[in-house]
Amino acid sequence: MLDKTAENGEFKYVGTRPQRPDGVDKVTGRARFGADMVMPGMLVGKVLRSPHAHAKIKSIDTSAAEALKGVKAVITAADLTADVPEAEYDTMVNCIAHGKALYDGHGVAAVAATSQAIANKALKLIKVDYEVLPHVTDVEEACKDDAPLLHDNIFTEGLEEEPTTPSNISGRVQFGHGDVEKGFAAADTIVERKFRTEATHQGYIEPHACVGNLSADGTGELWCCTQGHYMVRNSCAAILGIDISRLRVTASEIGGGFGGKTTIFIEPIALALSRKAGRPVKVVMTRDEVFRATGPTSSASMWIKIGAKSDGTITAMEGLLKYQGGAFKGTWVSLGCMTAFACYRADHMKTVGYDVLVNRPRAAAYRAPGAPMAAFAVESVVTELAEKLGIDPLEFRLQNAAKEGDQSSYGPKHRAHGLIETLETAKAHEHYNTPLGPNQGRGIACGFWFNFGGQTSTSLNVGADGTVNISVGTVDVGGSRASMCLMVAEELGVPYEKVRCVVADTSSLGHNDTTDGSRTTFASGMALILSARDAKQKLCARAAKIWEIPEEAVEWVDGHARPAGPNAGEFDPMSLAEIAGKAETTGGPIAGHHEYNARGAGVSFATHMVDTEVDPDTGRVTVLRYTVIQDAGKAVHPAYVEGQFQGGAVQGIGWAINEEYIYGEDGRLQNPGFLDYRIPVASDLPMIDTVIIENPNKGHPYGVRGVGETSIVPPMAAIANSVSAAAGVRMTELPMSPPRVLKAMDDAKA
Amino acid sequence: MSQIHVQTTINGDETEFLCDAEETLLDALRDKLGLTGAKEGCGTGDCGACSVTVDGRLVCSCLVLGAEAHGREITTIEGMANGEELHPLQQKFLDHAALQCGICTPGFLVAAKALLDRNPNPTETEVRYWLAGNLCRCTGYDKIIRAVMDTAAEMRGA
Amino acid sequence: MRFEAPTTVEAAVSLLAAETGMARVLAGGTDLLVQMKSGMAEPDLVVDIKRIDAMHEITPEDGGFRIGAAVPGIALGEHEGVKAAWPGVVEGTELIGSTQIQGRATMVGNLCNCSPAADSVPAMAAAGAIARVAGPDGSRDVPVEEIAAGPGKSNLAKGEMVDSVFLPARPANAGDAYLRFIPRTEMDIAVVGCGVNLVLDGDGTCSEARVALGAVAARVFLVPEAAEALVGTKVDDAALDALAAACSAAATPIDDKRGTVEFRKKVAGVLARRAATIARDRAKGSA
Fold this sequence. Notes:
A: 26 strands; C: alpha+beta
């Protein structure tokens, strides 16, 4: 597939840093995000949420709310469809509890009213009779035999023997190759440790928001901030019992997602309220609702064991990962298991994962879901093992790094990738060779993410003036429209400014999978390159028609159709604009399109390096310097690639040092706000240096690899290695908050 | 309870609106006046996405009552560009790719302008502390800080 | 809810006194509006005091300064006179929230919110600041550390409001400082706060000292044993050790989402030591 590289043909547009097409709207306040939409006659919708971590809903009395002047609709679980497909059942129940509230913040009922004040008043008038049940929020506690059981119909899947009693452990998975016992027997030194991480939130600044407008005949429209409007359409249609073709979903500009907007929370509620009220309904979450009811990660309890020979060769790697996924099945523990040892080559690897249910919000994807916590544990042990062996941790990683042809930890053999280049670059980097001061430490860590392809549909239309419109169905979260325009400009040979990209609604393009898995620049980009090639063929055919020569005697060079072969030089080349101007008389509009299930996504590896200083009297960690080195395959818009590296690193810094979900004894979330859920602020950080490695992905015409997710995989481990060096004690729990670090230092002294 | 009649100046224009006593300036701007450039990220003054200035002071409009705006001068992101001409900060944010999703961008621009109006030559540390109340989850702040520093340098004629 | 914006203190006080339901004073609003948003406070009356001219003033008085209840943090930080006399008090106020919060939040509001973690209060208490309370029966003066009764609860009577705070005159060779511990560099509530105010005599011996702690008890409080550890010393290492030990011993914190008992007790001593060092150096004129 790879047919254009820096070596074989200079890129003209790809690799430059032009202004993004949506830029002016975003710096002037004109860009319309989820909450910015207004529809005529619009009502305000609000959701009543459970104050209990675990409670049976004995009855709900909505009569007083319905009687309040200005209230136009009240819904409960009874207003959603009874025969939802199994695949959407949990999603529906997560939006509105069915019979049992499963976590603090779980939706129970909703109202639509003529104003926010009336809606809030109506919520207080809904009487819910709860029978409070014992709850469990800790992953290890939930695994115990006497733990409160969340669901009496869930039995552990993946066990050799089919269980006869229900369990909070919903599944067991295993990955690996070889025989770890044999591998450990061959080791001279073994390190094993337990690790714990707390749940974190994606922390997007834009709360979930939507406006739904659904008629009694099942025809509707929905405006919402989401990473995947096709996903929203399909899920909402299933939950409301309507045809997917009748629901048109338009994705607003999205104020961050990071995986947290890959599912639905309020969208079917807005639509159900609208159907009942006969008017459009806007639902906007408060920040409190975002923290209590949407997308945290799993918290995790992990054990890692790695053995090596005294020459530094790793002989075996083994891990046990327990991730809680909130109150519903399906964590990303499989991906944790698959990625845990992906950076290494070893003959014997084994990871076992448990998927655990607790009374917390349903875990949603968060940037490389499942991978960062596993990497924290593994990369901590890798560094500790290197230190025990007396080998530099970077050299130890180089020595054991997975290469092309090696058996990967997750199944297939490794194809060409840039891991070794990231490590070599780190080794030669000035950062790595700069001396440290007192109470300071340096840590490195590697990270991996698969990247995905997925179902994709794009179209391209050539305008009469020779400008080009492209339509994608993948939401632009971080500037991808600029990258799309660059790739089409490159392929057609027209200036970047002549190409404009829109994110089309669900009725305008074929199905597109959600913007996730770092797939958009790869998969929509490749579909657009193929759409452009489709259009080029048609442009050449039109030129052939004008010149009255055979189609195959025309080639496309540098934005022009040019006679080739025996006709070469016979006619002056025709520009895209000239051909487009004659389209009406040569056969009508000129367009290209492509639909596929994209394959060939290239993996991306990174090496991160960080210096921290630990205050010996308070345990406070300061990040002094940070460098990200990552393989991008080919950086289409390098500024936005750097931005992905920097953003992922800083989210990792937050996860490492201060971010955590804190639950009280009562099972209620203690910190549902940005005051006490402490994401990094500007003054906490240094500049984040970046180095882009370009090891082309052979599965993409230009060599592009996804870049968005890998950058959050190494930071917690790199910081843990750095803080452990600075504090003089191995840190095994996240976040490494001041009380935790100070206690570890005091305990080590004692 | 009847609504409060507020007369105020927004981005230089004399403006009137009616609001409930509890209603915030942010809600009045967004819902009554259609000025949706200021965003509600938290509603508690922790994120800065709703930043505006009131009589020249930078504030979170989610922590100001609409009624308090009476007789005051408000500026919002919508008043930052001069017609077609972007403010240098707006242009530098684009040049430096200082935004990804863009939801925090209006707040950062309003806050950064308030800084440069007061201190045309801030250090990196001063920029970082001044903007500590503006949360960005996408960029890691690096390119934002660079864009502000570069704007300051350009506006000083350096 | 009713919104009123009177132009005199007397009018404000009579509105507050006459309200039969819940009445709240609105200065910067950075606590009140958050409480209203969360449903923690549902006032029937909000009295905006920012239309009262005197509330915006910083006035020299008896060699010190009287600071109006509606002076926002940013305006206090712009006042060279107060900054020179009471740098610790100004810094404490400036630590409250973001730049945006500084555009609104006031020292008096921070005091009257009665949070044990209020950043401006330990420095004010160490400074010996006096709050002037206006009420239906006239004015009274109250030491700032006596305004709070407990978390979120004040000792003010119905109809009363604090209209200003008085910071006294400074002798020569005096210095103050406030430090707080937070996990991040900004935007957090103090996990521990410590204000130190001291005066040195001609040879550098500490003649007077006041030390106050925040966020380690139900309200901000003075620690006389800590002050005694400094008086009569050159504020040397031994004195600082005694000061730290006294502060750690005096702290009676709770375990919560912001920190543990163990951590807070220890850090109370660490901060006291660091704050006293800054105050001492300021008194010597070297900082």
